[in-house]
Amino acid sequence: MMKTFAELGFPGRLIAVEGLDGSGKSTQIYLLKRWLEIQGLKVFFSEWNSSELVKAATSKGKKRELLSPTTFSLIHATDFADRYERQLEPLLRAGYIVLCDRYIFTAFARDTVRGCPQEWVRGVYDFAPMPDMTFFFKANLEVSLQRILDGRPQLKYFEAGMDLRLSTDPYESFRIFQGRILEQYLALSTEFRFILMDGNQPIETQQTLVRKLVTARIDLQSFATDAHSKKRKV
Asked: What are the boundaries of each domain within the chain?
């Protein structure tokens, strides 16, 4: 297994969250970010598919439905590589706690379900070390679906896996597509030792446990900003 950032001697630590769309992972990483910031720690947040370099191309390709599974995979890999080179690695070398809403495991799960060979997908990302902590939020499919629909009127085309022609009904397609991704995640969770979280639990209950686990695993005060360190000493 590849080494974590800590094992490679990076001063910083990377915490990632993974899970199906609607699993609650984004809410949990945001709450963790705010909690760490309030303590005056050096924190940086990055989310999947957010690089300015490829955002426009991804958006255009999705709208026109031009993306094959391989193209989709390579665009996301380019996005990740750009963010890794410009943001993640430099900040980890500078001693930051980096929080990632999705990491390479999203590609491992999604791209494989879309038909890309597993070994090929992993080879594309073999430059990236493992996170120091990976939380996997496992929620029931119906819970995830309802959470998504609570926030907007309908499912997105690729989110529902409509490009795979699994069903003409977006909701049924979502269940099939996300169900297959869940199977991949469960296999990955064993292989890469994910911290399994019950995504069906109340938000506060989950966040309390996340903070407890992070505190137990990482020496948080070593990531305090200089100003905050001085304030504590006064």
From this structure: 13-233
